[in-house]
Amino acid sequence: MEEGARSCLLLSRSSLEQDIRASYLMDHMISDGVLTGDEEDRIRSKLTRREQATALLELLLRKDNQAYISFYNALVRESYGDLASLLHNSLPLVSPEAEKSFSDGGTRYVQAVLSEGGVPQRPVVFVSRSALVNRVREKLYRLQKEPGWVTVFGMAGSGKSVLAAEAVRDHALITGRCFPGGVHWLSIGQLDRADLLVRIQSLCFRLEQQSQEKDPSSSLHRPPGSLEEAKERLRFLMLRRYPRSLLVLDDIWDSSVLKAFDIQCRVLLTTRDRSLADCVSGSKSEVAVESGLEEDQALEILALYVNGKPQRLPEQARSIVRECKGSPLVVSLIGALLREFPDRWAYYLHTLQQKKFKRIRKSSSYDYDALDQAMAASIQVLSEEHRELYIDLTVLEQDVKVPAKVLSVLWDLELEEVEDVLQDFVNKSLLFRDCHHRPYLYYLHDLQLDFLTEMNRSGLESLHTKVVRQYQQRYSQGPPTSGDEECLYWFRFLTYHMAKANLTQELYSLMFSLDWVRTKAQIMGPAHLINDYVEYGAILDKEFSKLFMVVVCSRNKSSLKSLSRLVVQPHQGSIYSACFSHDGTKIASCGSSKTLRVFKSTSGEKLLEIQAHDDDVLCCAFSPDDHLLATCSSDRKVKVWNGSRLSVSNLFCVLWNINKPSSQNTMFGHLEPVNHCCFSPDDAYLSTSSSDGTLKLWEVSSANEWKSIDVADVFPEQREQTEVIVKCSTWSADGRTIICAARNAVFLWDIETSKKMADCSGHLSWVHGVQFSPDGSLLLSWSDDQTVRAWETNKVHTSSAVCLKRDSDVLFNNGDITVVAADNRNRLQVRGTGECVVLEGHKEQVRCFSLLTTSPSSETHLLSWSFDGTIKVWDMSSGERLQDLVCHQGAVLACDVSPDGQLFATTSADKTAKVWSRASWQCVRLLNGHQDCVRSCRFSWDGRRLATGDDNGEIRLWNVKDGTLLKICSRDNKDAMDSLHGGWVTDLHFSPDNTVLLSTGGYIKWWNVEKGEALQTFYPTGANLKRIHVSPDFSTFVTIDNIGILYILKKVE
């Protein structure tokens, strides 16, 4: 097993041992061939659940990568999603041969079904996009009840076909009640009627052949001779012989093609045009494939192609991934080329940067060998008129969104007509729309814009000239003054279009037009105006421009000082951080453009721009003496720049002429993005906060790491398992203390000893910033919980590592309130009017507990049960343990007290239930018969019956008096999942008259107690109902499913 996977298992071991049931996971691992029957028997021989979990993990650590992956998949299938997330980032890479031999998204039966249906195999190099796959599967599950259409749409090369194939590679979809008739895949593409007929003939023949194999009495028919006949033949086959099957239509281009499959069946289609399904009948849903690969996924693909590991790829790898803009097609093409020429990283990076898409060419299973072919195919389906309009979009700037009014000016069309054209582009995934603005804004994907620029390189000047001429024609009487999005676009980018069109004279006239200068200054402020003169100074007459700038700035100098705000746009893209220099004369900013920019705080005029990092720059900070400037980035690097030459002249207009500065020091050591940086008061050290869970202190002069504080270790072991991200840090005025924020907590550290001095817990969500008051007496923190908190520094303290769990019970007695809750140390805490009483004795996690009132003295005792197989009885006032009963060989999963308080029942993972006497504390009834863990129990209100439910969905009714079995609820009517509830029976309730029993699991059922027959079943949208609350009159029922949907059910009389 790879070292990273082994380390992840060891780090997560305590959480896994605490929660998993090994018996559930081993079935899947045996199916995958990574666990033997003898190994399973050895693990099952352990007495307690925790011992079994420990034995499974010890065995797993001695196995290989396939065992790790099988264990991870088993966690996912058994709804241990939170535990699976702990292992996800360390999933090891396996060779293509091992990938083929390993379970490919299901059992051998599922693989056979998909193979018969022509579903493509996974690519040799494959990385899962689980979020998108789950969205498609969610839509497919909705086709269970009625025919319909699921459309997966996105731009060229976004991975739609691979996504569709992965979505149907699901055991529950194929073997459950969704598509037991199989999945039938048909690749379409751009076809004429004759080719389409051939495709449908081929599909019909395949379906008839499979049907004949199952039923030899059926015969093959002659191939249909026309599209109409082919459509009817396919309708007959899908509705009569394969009524519960899924038809997958891959790469649909034309609505006329789609109509041939409008036969009232279940269809999944992939397309670039989201509007295609509008022409067919039936229910419709869609999934947009807008987002590309994440950086880690793209790096994993490249690593698989070159048989390496992501962390060992050359430095050009991350730059290549960024230039690929997340496109699965481009990443795969580059990876395939690198597999043959592994020393060409720099060459292919340069090719991408130069937009030479025709050189990025490699034969593959994809219909197009190069990106330019895929993009061109999308444009060719447009009408000639729309194609010319689309080419006009070449003039747009990257990451700039434009309103329809701007394109109305460019195309000289009515606004409504422009919106119709844009809707067509959006439907065909050739354009994207930002629906968060009104009116809508439109923009191109970076790859689409790059392709258009490359395709029209020779005509760029004329295209920009067209923009300028159309503007001049529309606004011949003067510039727009409305202040809306269209107006702002022209004031921001008209000069850009003129410069690109080489219209020097028009640019000169515009920038010295008093109407333009006055209007732009009023609408956008002076910063944008001054930046135009700086940006295009080389084009203008330099002497005249200098004079003009001095005049404009001098006239506005007094007004600038009184401005309440300064609007500056220093970067293209999001800005993540900005800070003042300590003398207040400069502002530094950074963001997604990967640049650091310094400008004057008075006018916004640019002083310096540096390409600082290879990825988003997340934070920047001046040193206290303003001589140094630090930046940190998602590329995991920290850099310190020499800012001594960033001087500002006493003149209002800056005289600027310095060489491009370089980084003085680069600091390496963080393993994840660095979120924040901050200088110490004496400039000697720099603190950095990272998503790797550490706070690091660096010597500025040498760039050496001075100290590293692992903030992640501060959180209790039993915390909810998610990554610990250190958001920010700041120093005290004396430089001896540093504070940092991680999750919803703030921590104070003594720098000399690197020990935690105190923590401030109180925020309910992520803390995003912290700051000391000038005298250090107060500490300020602000959070996602919409609060700002001020803490007295000398009064905050270090809390214990003990934390209460959410399970609790409350006793109200004559105005007094007693609260009982389990903590993370296997203890119970009783809190009332007096001191807290701690009940300690369980060796494993406390499963649950119940308050007991002893009559006639009304003394209150506490009954608790645990995974350690014991029941304990406590005196709540003194904390004394009154009884310690070893009840079962396995974990005690449930307990219930009879209405008269004289008996209590326990159920266990050892497949038994027991009834105990409170008078003698002895077992009076042993109830055998369940074939799986007995997870729930409930006494009837008259105390005569006991209901028990197990993990196989079976419910048994027992006679409490003699322990005889009365009924097994609908034993012979199990569903396709071999369970009455699609899972465990988790809760049981009797009606007040004891005639109806309510049970929950994957579903909710009401039973006739006398007959043991189901009266009604309610199917929630989700599953895994853990508990249901019932009103005293048995008329209202409240529960929540595993996807967070709240159900309030009312009995209808």
Automatic annotation (TrEMBL):
| CDD domains registered for this protein in UniProt | WD40
Q: Where are the WD repeats?
A: 610-642, 667-708, 760-801, 839-884, 885-917, 927-968
The UniProt entry, under Pfam families, shows:
APAF1_C, CARD, NB-ARC, WD40, WHD_APAF1
Every CARD domain range: 1-90
Q: Which GO terms describe its cellular component?
A: cytosol
Q: What Gene Ontology terms describe what this protein does at the molecular function level?
A: ADP binding
**Keywords, ordered alphabetically:** Apoptosis, Repeat, WD repeat
SUPFAM superfamilies in UniProt: DEATH domain, Nucleoporin domain, P-loop containing nucleoside triphosphate hydrolases, Quinoprotein alcohol dehydrogenase-like
Q: Which GO terms describe its biological process?
A: apoptotic process; regulation of apoptotic process
Q: Which InterPro entries match?
A: APAF1_C, Apaf_helical, CARD, DEATH-like_dom_sf, NB-ARC, P-loop_NTPase, Quinoprotein_ADH-like_sf, WD40/YVTN_repeat-like_dom_sf
Q: Which PROSITE patterns match?
A: CARD, WD_REPEATS_1, WD_REPEATS_2, WD_REPEATS_REGION
Indicate what this protein is called per its UniProt record. Answer: Apoptotic peptidase activating factor 1
User: Which organism is this entry from?
Assistant: Hucho hucho
The major lineage groups are: Eukaryota, Metazoa, Chordata, Craniata, Vertebrata
